[in-house]
Design brief:
Elements: H1 6-19, H2 25-30, H3 34-53, H4 55-67, H5 72-87, H6 92-109, H7 114-126, H8 136-142, H9 149-174
Helix pairs in contact: 3-6, 4-5, 4-6, 5-6, 5-7, 5-9, 6-7, 7-9
Length: about 180
């Protein structure tokens, strides 16, 4: 809402939950998953390095040059696809952090509205279902459910493609390129 910066607002809200005993201090500390924070922090650091060194611009140039002949939607599709592919191997937050500067540079290089590219990165990073090792809920059911890696690929890959098709139809309709 713009009333407070998000860091201050979330800290006040968390403190309010502890003060009103909705959650105890130890329970709040235990709910913080340090390995996820480390992955996110490392991804953000790497993303900043990619941006500062000019690598984001170079990678964006490769994406734009490869897809420009097919139009703006193809550039968006490549950004979405690369983000989704990264998310099958990395944590979704890390892949989003890595792809954000590349997507922004691709939008700038192709003279397109960056909002659609930001949304494509967010959705592409979240809609990666073909791997059991990159998301905690997948890992929770992987062993106890008796699933095999190929089960995730068999069900997750078609779901990846359905999500991509829907996203690539809806994103440009809501955030025109």
């Amino acid at each position: 809402t713009g009333v407070l910066p998000i860091a201050i607002g979330s800290s006040v809200a968390g403190g309010g939950l502890i003060a009103t005993r909705c959650i105890s201090g130890p329970a709040a500390r235990q709910s913080i998953q340090m390995h996820v924070l480390v992955v996110i922090a490392a991804g953000l650091g790497l993303a900043r390095a990619i941006d500062k060194t000019g690598a984001a611009s170079v990678l964006a140039g490769l994406i734009v040059n490869a897809a420009i002949v097919l139009g703006p939607l193809a550039i968006l599709a490549v950004v979405y696809g690369v983000t989704m592919l990264l998310s099958e191997f990395l944590h979704h937050a890390a892949s989003a952090a890595l792809m954000f500067p590349i997507a922004m540079a691709a939008a700038e290089r192709a003279d397109l509205d960056p909002r659609a590219f930001v949304v494509a990165v967010a959705i592409g990073a979240s809609c990666a279902f073909a791997s059991p090792v990159t998301y905690q809920t997948h890992l929770l059911v992987y062993g106890p459910g008796g699933y095999r890696f190929t089960d995730f690929v068999r069900v997750g890959l078609p779901l990846d493609f359905v999500c991509a098709a829907v996203a690539l139809l809806v994103i440009p309709a809501v955030w025109p390129l």
